[in-house]
User: Fold this.
Amino acid sequence: MKSRTITNVCLFVIFATLSLLMANKVGAQSNTGMTITVTPATAYLKILPGNRETHTITIVSQSSQVLEITPKVVDFRPDGRTGQPILSDTTNFPYLVDGTSHFPPIILQPKERAQLTLAFNPPAGSPDKEYPMTVIFTARPASAVDAMNSASEISGAVASNIIVLVSKEQEPPPQVSIKDFGTFRLVDSFGLISLKPIAENESFAAIVASGSASIKNWQGKPLAEFPLYPDSILGLSTRELRSFIIENTPENESEPLLVPKPFQFDKPFLFGIYRIGLVLNTEEAEITLVALPFSIIVAILVGAGSYGAYTLVTKRLRS
Assistant:
């Protein structure tokens, strides 16, 4: 049982990290000619209160000039739909060992690499909470540090995300719900059924979306099924769910590539009642929508109205 628990935790971290890398990747290089890369772009770290953990970020200069790199830690929050991080100006994370979010500048020679190690030490009894943070690395030419006209200095920045979960729970229980299906209940027969479901994570810890969406006709006959893309939903946040297709190419034959795609069901003519089901982790929900030829109905009504108006005007002109 212990081995299985450890395996599950490892898989959770792997999936959460991969999902954030695909959906939330912050630019890996500046666009000012002072190219630097940072790894990992995203990491997920779980800490038991009373324990000390460290996290190391590697910075590599691809520039041909000497750079001064200034690290700074800030908080971020997801945007509630795409998972894109919205950065704050500071951090409220209370467990940085050095007690500061600013670090001394790092001087990098051309093609040189360096490492920044963060240490976290939440005391015993710390409350269960997830802390999304971003380490911003601002780069500028070292020769510009003492420049007289600092306003003309050119700089660029890259970032590395780290989500720190402080919890006494080995595996925090999932508490996720389907907030909205993101679709109209009335659909035109010549249109398509499109979903943009929003999931809400009511737990303090991130989860990875799993499950599927399905479409059935009024008789319960399955018409389409869409697997859920394994996006990470951070604690106490919302996120729009996506589906995916699997791409097999010679380059990724051993590891098939999951390509995100929207939930869309398109057929030549929709008519009648359709049931939309959604299974998200341990939650299930279903809605009903109706498809009718509204465009034809509107065209008939507009035509009838136009003909009536034409007839009325013609009668008045003749009289």
Remarks:
- Residues 312 and 318 are 10 Å apart (CA to CA).
